[in-house]
Model the fold of this input.
Amino acid sequence: MSNSSVTHEFIKGLPKAELHLHLEGTLEPDLKLALAEKNGIDIGQSTIEEVEASYRFDSLSSFLAVYYPAMNVLQDESDFYELAMAYLRRAKDNGVVHVELFFDPQAHTSRGVSFETVIKGYHRAVEEAPSLGIDAALIMCFLRDFSAESAMETYEQALPHKDLILGIGLDSDERDNPPLKFAEVFARAKADGFPVAMHCDIDQENSIEHIRQALLEIGVDRLDHGTNIVEDPTLVAYVKEHGIGLTCCPASNGFVGDDMKGKEIVELLTEGVKVTVNSDDPAYFRSYISNDLYILAKKYELSREQVVQLVRNSFEVSWISDEAKAVFLARVNEYVATQN
Done:
């Protein structure tokens, strides 16, 4: 089928799973301003336009320098709830029916907000997600530029809320923070039955070594980003053989790097690797999941079948039951069958 059939309308209507979405990265300028006013916090901006102008960066480090200070507006349980609900409403408009939501408790506990406040607010939104037609769950991430001890302390704080957490991840600045720095806490999480994932960001120093550590020594179930894996065919063969998914984010790649890594995504897709497309931090990169899929499809002339395979991959490598996957995949097939 030709590329002309891959319209934005077709993509938006596709039932989707989103597996790489940072809740803190969904803080839209209007909500940031509203929460700042509610909580009496001077953020140095007083209009939506001024907030939008502050969302400018050209590297992972410059992005994080804007990203973390913005979180100061999140103070009480209702703030975290409102943030998550605002994303879920946009997700519904983008055809998302299942989402696994990253959250960064250390970004909040380090500034005096309790772990309980964060997770209770987010979990309230997860409980309400079905009213929007969305199945949602939380993935707790450690900040890799914090210490391994801080990660373990955070894990201990999470244990009383274990039933509210689907899996464990690792994100933030990768420089000098390899996967093996967190081997102990991830081994414990795996022993406790959590599926695990790690960010292996694009074009980082020692990218391939970090991917190797994540796959072969930590034993992750998914790689977040991870497209530098194309540099090592043996690792590509490994993820293909083991059905390990890569949660790729074209729009954010284009913001913090030289390109969206579409060539690599398409190459991996063609080889049968379970690559997926996600929006990462959509408030900052101005692109929600349907747009990420659309810009990738248009620039790299993907067929309708390729777009649908990217969506199918997302369900197949999600951390839900096989029965739930089958239900969602049937919905994808039904939708595609109705499109001429």
Summary: The mean pLDDT is 95.
